[in-house]
Specification:
binds pyridoxal-5'-phosphate; 374 residues; eight-stranded mixed beta sheet; 2 domains; Aspartate Aminotransferase, domain 2; 14 strands; Aspartate Aminotransferase, domain 1; 37% helix; globular; alpha/beta; 12 helices
């Protein structure tokens, strides 16, 4: 029998509008990490996010987190609090700066940073003589974290929040767009995200001055002087005008992409929800872009059974993020653990969720998954 066609977890989904912007960049020879598409993409994101946001387009979400930490003055031996259940890119930039990550476990309602554990950790770090310099909180799989609770604690202890919104463009908390809550927000346009520039990211801030400082740092920190004068260490992190053209085309269909991903989640839930398969609900005030649809099974054994079955049918899926406190690279990092993220990792699985999934493919995933229980 011929191999069944591959169903991807989350693959790029072009609208057809991208190439006109890219062509214009070629036609006008704006083939550089600046130009009208970069400006246009930033304006588009600022309008979309609202709240007086100022956006700097960068080469990656990881670069945005790195610069966010630089902007907040994080340096050698500083401690930075980070959600443990996330992709490693949330935490790696802490190490780039010689600072130390401190990992915080999740709660069950959103799977994101647990406010109680966060507060215990802050008190404990302070009692050890270390006042955390920043908190990196993540809206995982598009589900907003408990914004009010996390930000109340952060402001009580006067610690700025970096809002890792890489997976949650299009999500909302109490009606307000994710990416606009933190002292600094970050976005990703990597190939698997809800919209993509093939690779890219952005830093969202509340002031023009922070945006200008970001662009300055991202373009080698050249002082305003005819000579190449440098009084800061710089980075080469600006987004290309070609890629920003892709972004402009993608931004036009962002809301469609969100609706499609949400309908995929609904379909899975309708077809598969049972005693054995559970889904993460939206609490009052939470609106997820459902970047990835995730299921929670009863056990690691069941999760593995389903994962291997899907793989054998050429359907891509993957366990929920392995918590950072379980990663060899962070073996020495302090951690405040309540068991939730470990359990989610054991039992959870991400299903194909791309907005270009056909009904036929979706049915194939559902049928395969149901066959596990027969
Ligand atoms: C994708 C992702 C990033 C990194 O973004 P890149 O654009 O790939 O560098 C950071 N944090 C989270 C939670 C992500 O999913």
């Amino acid at each position: 029998m011929a191999t069944k066609s591959k169903i991807w977890l989350s693959s790029p989904h072009m609208s057809g509008k991208e190439q006109a912007f890219v062509k214009e960049a070629f036609d006008t020879n704006w083939v550089a990490p600046l130009g009208p598409n970069v400006d246009g993409f930033e304006k588009g994101l600022e309008t979309y996010l609202g709240e007086g946001s100022h956006v700097a387009a960068l080469s990656a979400g990881t670069a945005a987190i790195h610069l966010a930490l630089v902007l907040l003055g994080v340096g050698r031996d500083d401690e930075v609090i980070c959600q443990s259940k996330t992709f490693s890119a949330s935490a790696n930039p802490i190490v780039y700066l010689g600072a130390k990550p401190v990992f915080i476990d999740s709660e069950r309602e959103t799977w994101n940073m647990c406010p109680d554990t966060l507060e215990d950790a802050i008190k404990d770090r302070i009692s050890k003589g270390k006042h955390p310099k920043a908190i990196i909180a993540v809206h995982l799989y598009g589900m907003p974290y408990k914004v009010d609770a996390i930000h109340d604690i952060a402001s009580n202890y006067d610690i700025p929040v970096i809002e890792d919104s890489a997976e949650s463009l299009g999500s909302r908390y109490k009606g307000r767009k994710c990416g606009t809550f933190g002292e600094i927000g970050i976005l990703s346009f990597n190939g698997n995200k809800i919209i993509t520039t093939s690779g890219g990211g952005a830093l969202v801030s509340k002031s023009k001055a922070v945006k200008e400082k970001t662009v300055f740092l991202a373009t080698q920190a050249r002082d305003d002087s005819p000579a190449y004068l440098h009084s800061h260490i710089g980075y080469n992190y600006r987004m290309s005008n070609i890629l920003a053209g892709i972004g402009r085309g993608q931004l036009e269909v962002l809301e469609d992409r969100v609706s499609k991903r949400r309908s995929i989640f609904q379909k899975y839930k309708q077809e598969l929800e049972s005693e054995s398969i559970r889904f993460l609900e939206e609490e009052e005030g939470f609106y997820s872009n459902r970047w990835l649809s995730c299921i929670l099974t009863e056990s690691r054994e069941m999760r593995e059974g389903i994962r291997l079955l899907l793989e054998s049918e050429n359907i891509e899926c993957r366990p929920l993020w392995k918590p950072m406190h379980q990663q060899p690279i962070f073996a020495d990092a302090p951690r405040y653990i309540n068991g939730v993220s470990d359990e989610l990792f054991e039992k959870g699985l991400c299903l194909p969720s791309g907005s270009n999934l056909t009904d036929h493919d979706l049915d194939r995933v559902v049928k395969t998954l149901k066959s596990y229980f027969n």
